[in-house]
Amino acid sequence: MLNQAAINELSLALLFAQAEAQAGEDGLQYIVLDDPIQSLDTEHQVGLARAIEALPPHWGVMLGVIDSPLVDCLKEYVSVPRQIIMLGQYSSETGSQISSQESL
């Protein structure tokens, strides 16, 4: 029986494998992950950062996460040029505002 963290890890591994198998040499590839760190401890968040680092550099990666240790893991383990865009608090009048932006 797998716990929630193990199920999440397996799902991410399958997603990355499927994306790589279906990748076209000429086309742009994107991976969008919404809160992929549910139930993952810091060690497994490091593994996710390393998996993102292993993706081809021309692939776009979009992660939706609430401020977490994953951001620090990405800063430490991802050397491919990427940008981190942090959104501020949502307002019904203005939507989300960019609170910070930095390149990795």
Mean pLDDT: 83
The tally of beta strands, per DSSP, is 4
> What is the chains' assembly state?
single chain
Secondary-structure content class: alpha+beta
Which features would summarize this protein structure in a list?
20% strand, 104 residues, two-stranded parallel sheet, globular, 3 helices, alpha+beta
Summarize the structure in short.
The chain is α+β, with helices and mostly antiparallel strands. The protein has helices at residues 4-22, 42-54, 69-77, and strands spanning 30-34, 60-64, 83-87, 98-103. Helix content is 39%, strand content 20%.
Question: Can you offer a commentary on this structure?
Answer:
The chain is of the alpha+beta class and 104 residues long. It has one domain. The protein contains three helices and four strands, in the order αβαβαββ. The strands form two sheets. The protein has a two-stranded parallel sheet. Strands 3-4 form a two-stranded antiparallel ribbon. β1, α2 and β2 form a beta-alpha-beta unit. The model has no long low-confidence stretch (mean pLDDT 83).
